[in-house]
Structure formats: C-alpha cells, structure tokens
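Q: Please design a sequence for this.
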C-alpha cells in the first residue's frame, strides 16, 4: 500500500511560463497538469542507486543532532511512457560497486556505497542504457548525476538555472563550491543537453511533469508522475530529505537558498493537496526500504 502524505490546505494552481530549448515533446508555455484531465504513464520502477552514511546529521538538521550519524538511501526512478523510457536521476557511479572504501562527494562528511549497478538493474527488465530516451536530473549533486555518461544517446533534461549555477563563480560555502566543481566534471558536455525553464510537461499530456522546486540548489526540480492505478506520485529529488524535515520546514545547511527551500516545500504541500498525491522522499531510507523495487513497479 502506498503511504500517503497529505496536507489539508487549499491550493490555487499557479502557471509558470517556460521556454524549452530544443526539447521535442515538451510544450512551451506548459504548466502543472489538470488533475482531472491529465494523461497517465504506464509504469514507474524504483532502482537502487546507492546508500550512504553521513557522520553529522546536523548538516541536514541545523542546530540539532550534532555529531550523530545518519543513513540515507539514493534512489533512481524509471518511467515507461508508451514506447519511451525516462530515467529520473542516475545515482552513485557504477565504479563504486562493492568497493569497501565507497565513494564520496564530500569525503569529510558522507560516504556512498553501491550494491548493484544501474546497468544490471535495467537488464533485469530487458533494457540497455541506449534504450533510455530521456534522462531528467533533479539537480547536479554527484550522487544524482554520477552515471550521466552512460546515457550518451539520451536527452539530458535539466533546469537552465541549474546549469548556469554550476558554471558560475564560487560562493562562500566551501562544501557547496566542491559540489559545483564535481558537478561540472560529472556532467561533462552531453551532446543532447536540453535546458528548460520552470514547470515542464514532458510528453504534452500531463502524465509526467518536471516541477521547479529551487532552494536545495538554484535549479532543483522534482517530478510529478500520473499513473492509472496509483494516482499522482511526486518524486522529491532533494526538495526535502526526510518526512520529519518536511513536516518542520527544516532546511539543510548545504541548501543554496533558505527562503526558496521553504517556498518549494510549500509548493509540494499544495501539490499533494491538489493532486491527492503520494510523496516519495529520495533520501529517506526508512520510507524507501518499504517501496517496491525493480522488477516490481507502480502502475
């Protein structure tokens, strides 16, 4: 059974204008879908994209839990829409597979481990990386984009604001500067990079919508998926890291903008109310461990 996270608030849909640069199938001027008329995707698969151990939870809960370790999940999602496949995030690098040393974006803070590769998981349902039509990334932190290079034939969809940010001068937070440098290296120069601005209807039918939720990073986005039997599901990216943080509007110290982070969490709450949606929180291991894993799927 899906665990529903619902908020009893009323919501007025706000349309965000957008511009799409070279993005076949995503319509300019699109907005959040009509919850009654939205089309449906066929299947939604969860892929195990790593796990991590951080040595100081207070980075994600400022002022609390100082020096306490915390485990996080890293989750990727695969969506079947007709004859097309869309991958949401690409996880920890395959080179980290069963390496006891792990892999890290910030070695002094957090270490990631990988128990199975994306390639092997895709093969379980008869797919190769070259079969993935589009790769949409929530944001450019290394644990979300480390395998982008596997999908050289795919359209790589990200917010223009995110791309501009990682190519901008360093700021005052050294950890954030390290994440930006790593992002530039991992992203490289995709041959089919598609930069979008704001909320974007990927297939033009309301079934899969990229939702602008800045704050964790300047161009962070979440994903709204509509399925026939499971209804609307929101894939969080890193708009929030745990259900408790979401309930309390807690903003991690690594986020680039606190006000935007809080506004984006509120936007997600409003979407949950409007679409009667389920929120899947990417790094919340307690929740993730209860979700279906490929080859099982939501439909």
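A: Design:
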């Amino acid at each position: 059974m899906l665990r529903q996270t619902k908020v009893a608030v009323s919501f007025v849909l706000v349309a965000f204008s957008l511009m799409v640069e070279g993005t076949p199938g995503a319509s300019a001027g699109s907005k959040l879908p009509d919850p009654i008329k939205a089309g449906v995707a066929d299947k939604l698969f969860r892929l195990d994209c790593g796990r991590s151990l951080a040595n100081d939870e207070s980075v994600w809960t400022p002022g609390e839990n100082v020096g306490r370790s915390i485990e996080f999940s890293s989750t990727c999602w695969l969506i079947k829409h007709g004859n097309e496949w869309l991958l949401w995030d690409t996880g920890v690098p395959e080179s980290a597979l069963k390496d006891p040393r792990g892999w890290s974006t910030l070695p002094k803070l957090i270490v990631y481990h990988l128990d199975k590769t994306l390639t092997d998981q895709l093969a379980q349902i008869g797919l190769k990386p070259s079969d993935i039509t589009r790769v949409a990334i929530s944001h450019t932190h290394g644990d979300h984009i480390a395998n982008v290079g596997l999908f050289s034939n795919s359209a790589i969809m990200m917010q223009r604001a995110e791309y501009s940010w990682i190519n901008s001068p360093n700021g005052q937070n050294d950890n954030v500067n390290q994440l930006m440098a790593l992002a530039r290296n991992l992203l490289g120069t995709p041959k089919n990079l598609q930069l979008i601005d704001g909320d974007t209807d990927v297939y033009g039918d309301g079934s899969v919508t990229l939702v602008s939720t800045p704050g964790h990073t300047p161009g962070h986005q979440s994903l709204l998926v509509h399925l026939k039997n499971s209804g609307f599901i929101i894939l969080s990216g890193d708009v929030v890291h745990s259900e408790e943080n979401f309930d309390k509007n807690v903003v991690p110290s690594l986020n680039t903008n606190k006000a935007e982070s809080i506004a984006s969490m509120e936007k997600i709450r409003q979407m949950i109310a409007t679409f009667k949606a389920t929120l899947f929180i990417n790094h919340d291991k307690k929740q993730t461990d209860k979700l279906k894993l490929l080859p099982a799927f939501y439909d």
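Q: Thanks. Anything notable?
A: The two ends are 13 Å apart (CA to CA). The CA atoms of residues 59 and 253 lie 5 Å apart.
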